[in-house]
Amino acid sequence: MRTIGQHGDAVRALVAPALPSAGASGSGDPVPVDDLQAQRVDDLAADTGAGHGYRVLGRAVRSPIPLPPFDNSQMDGFAVRAADAGATLRVVAPIPAGAVPSDLQPGTAAPIMTGARIPVGADAVFPVEATAPGAFPAALSLPTVTVPDDLTAGTFVRTTGSDLAADAVVVPAGALLTPAVLGALAAAGVRQVDLVRRPRVLVVSTGSELDGVDGEAAGVAVAGAASGGAGINDANGVALRAALAEVGAESRTVRVPDDEARFTAALEHAVGDWADLVLTTGGISAGAYEVVRQALEPRGLVVTPVAMQPGGPQALGTVPFDGRPVPVVAFPGNPVSALVSFEVFLRPVLARAAGMAESRPVQVLPAADAAESPVGKHQVRRGRVVDGRVHFVGGPSSHLLAHYADATHLVHVPVGTAAVAPGDPLTVWSLR
């Protein structure tokens, strides 16, 4: 039986190389054309961020213009020649932002607003606060202004290209498209970028008992829900797709029955040339109808029980689909087991590829309640943190999904612990 750490390392070694962003995340390796996706910069503002993963740039972007594109004023004030320091100058027409100003004539000062273009002939700006009115628009009525004695060339002038020279790299390949990066691209007038496409995960829910078993969606005719009221709703497919979206992965779902031939045909069709990773739930335990194990173990899947509760049954391996090797990660079918397995084993790998923190926020806090735990397993309980203490939510059973939904933290009880007493320190991961 593997430890959590051993199985986590195995999942990372299997999955990370198959992700399309793996070659771009700081390695400097070229990204295959098939892994690139062109997208408009304007559209990316609503499609990136820590809530659902940052997008990764597949190719470096150079700036078509310098930033700033022209000398402009750093503040509201008067554009003048530094050589006129100490002189009294005639005030001419103001320069608002966005205007193309006339050349500044000798002996004059032009009121200028923040961000406005510096006129030819001027090389410095002094602030409006240095005048008697002290602010615009009152200072616009001044017939003359006196330039401060200590004014030097370049004062309060943002020079052309001081942020970025023309043709300089705005963003290197492999960079994460953070809000500041997107802002820099927009400022440089970049309209479209080549991104590393998001990882594509096929989520496979198994079980003839599932309502709406939809092998038909994968091009395979399959009978519908179990008869006689024995059907259950597919929580795993919905929950895992949401968890995948949270770390920037695209996903599709297929529900398949406990029939090896139909299961295999449905997977072959659904995987196609689309999926980077197959994630299955159910069908890997010791029952008589363990369809994932029966269909995929002969093709490369390795069943590897882990010393964890819930989520003890685990499997993984590289399986050929239509001659293409695809990593498969198999979780247990009970919904809490599937979600806990995702948090512990798969989320860290996908989060890293999406530019997110691999680990959930971690704290060590005292237990508020007593609890028991199997001494030979790492138990992952659901809980809430109230007033700095950990309160268990529900029991350890793997079917208590509503209790999981009510929890805010995963609570870790390590191997070797038979009982938890109030006040004992526990490691907790914040889920929200």
Q: Secondary structure elements and their pairing?
A:
Blueprint: H1 4-15, E1 36-40, H2 41-44, E2 56-57, E3 61-62, E4 72-73, E5 77-80, E6 88-91, E7 108-112, E8 124-127, E9 144-146, E10 157-158, E11 169-171, H3 179-187, E12 192-196, E13 200-206, H4 235-246, E14 250-256, H5 260-271, E15 277-281, H6 291-296, E16 302-303, E17 308-309, E18 315-321, E19 324-331, H7 335-353, E20 362-366, E21 371-372, E22 378-386, E23 389-392, H8 401-406, E24 409-413, E25 419-420, E26 425-430
Parallel strand pairs: 6-7, 13-14, 13-15, 15-19, 17-22
Antiparallel strand pairs: 1-12, 2-12, 3-11, 4-10, 5-7, 5-8, 6-9, 16-18, 18-19, 20-26, 21-25, 22-23, 22-24, 24-26
